Structures are given as C-alpha cells and as structure tokens.
C-alpha cells in the first residue's frame, strides 16, 4: 500500500530550515509484511533531511493479539510499539518514539483494567487513548472509512470513559469527519477535565457526496472549528489533509505535489486553525504513512515550514515541538 517511494522521488526539494527541531505527534507503524511500514521505513522518512527528534505513535489497529479476551487485544499493539520504541531509543542518530497513544473501548465497565494493561506493556510510553468517532452513512466508497457507531460522542458510557481518562491524567485523541466537529465540541464541553486532541483538522471530506463542494464545506468548517476551539481542553493536530478522502487527488497524479502546491491548496486550513486555537494549542503532524500516499515527508515538512514562516519564533517552536511535548508529557532531548 505504501510502496510508492519511486513515485515520491520525482519531487526532491532542498530542506528548508534543516536545524529546526520537530516532534512529529502522529504517525503509525505496521509490521512486515502487513503494510510494510515498520521502524526502518519510518526512519527513511524522519531521517530524510528534517530534524525530527521525537515522535508519538498513534493507534491504528496494528499487531493486535490474536487470542484472549477481545477487550485486551489492543495490548498487542502496545507491546509491538514498546519494542520499536526501545530500538529507536538505542540509536541516538534517529528519531525516538517518545510517546504512545493506544486504543480501548471507552464504553466498557472494566476500562481501568485495560488502561493498567497498557501501562504495564508500554514501558513508560503510554499517554492516552484514541477511540475514534468517525462515522458517515455514505462512507462505503471512502479509502479509509470510519468504523465508529453513529452517535458515539453522545453515548453515556463513552462519555464516562472519556472522563475517566482525564481523572487518571491521560489524553483523549479522536478522528472524526468535518460534519461531526460540533458533536465533538459538545463532548469537549461535557467533559472539560480531559485533555482532548482533534486529529487532522476534523477531516474535511472531498470525495463521494462531498466532491465538488469544497468551498461550501470550507465555510462551514471554519465556523465549526471556531466553535470547538472555544473549549480550552481541546488541542488541534494540524495536518493529515493529504489522505485520499480529503479529495485533493494528489495520490492519483503522475507526479506528487511540490511544497508550493501543498501550501497553495491547504494553507487556509492551517491559518484558520492557528487563529482559532492559537499556536500554543496547535501541533503540526505528519499522519504518516497514510499521507505518504500523496506527498513525501521531506516535501510535507517543507510546506509546513513555509506556512509557519510568518509566525513569531516562539509560535513556531510551539507548533513544531512545544505543544506536542506539553500535551503528551515528553521530555525535551
């Protein structure tokens, strides 16, 4: 799925601001031969010119246990990442996996047992849970359809689980679609004691029933992002807009986009989110290897640096590293 290195190599730019320290707060790994994006593939991206010093792994259903109770199967992913993180920490010349966000069904009565199992398996890396809320009744044609039930954010047991994360000092990450942002805002207001992270700008869609409606959808998205940003317990991961379902179509082209093309198409999303949340609540993300379907790691971070160029130095530090370290409690290197 991600074996597109030759295609990506058609665009090879000089690295902008190569010494700027980056914490990439959102990436995935899958062991070989499943999707062929393991630690070595991650390093091939993070070590390709930009100064990526730390990363945070985000749950993706990888390496689940094949046996045992269903509720504990996600612990297999924790064990897999703990081993990968140990390997990354042993090599001082590569990016270190410094934090881990796992999965649990937050509706379960025995949530604490699952959280304790994550803690025991994560070797000090466990930071929180992502139980994504992405649901769309017309998602059958999406490249990566959401699997959440309709109305998850309003579920009483789910809200109890999100609150429990905050009580124990853990974060809640979510991935949803743009038409669910106000539902997420309602969740955030109902559970103010939990630090929440909205991934990928709330995923503005541009395929299926949303194709050809980008301008209207963007106008509504702007209002909804402003509304969710009023909740001070919510932080924004700004990135992840190069997924096929965002509808920019780069993954179907003969050549991948340049950083200038990336900026022209997507900068308005970034600037609006930064305006609403403030740099102190924003963190640039790669969402690799999913966004790798459309753009290279080197080109992506060049584009992010171009978008950030007009912000003050302290604001750039926050978005490239500081906010991620604050939210996920990462030690500076």
From TrEMBL:
GO molecular function: hydrolase activity
Keywords of this entry: Hydrolase
One Pfam short name: Amidohydro_2
Coiled coil segments of this chain: none
Keyword presence, Hydrolase: yes
Tagged with keyword Transmembrane helix: no
Domain Amidohydrolase-related: 23-330
Family to which the UniProt record says this protein belongs: Belongs to the metallo-dependent hydrolases superfamily.
PANTHER family, per the entry: AMIDOHYDROLASE, BLL3371 PROTEIN
Name of the molecule in the record: Amidohydrolase
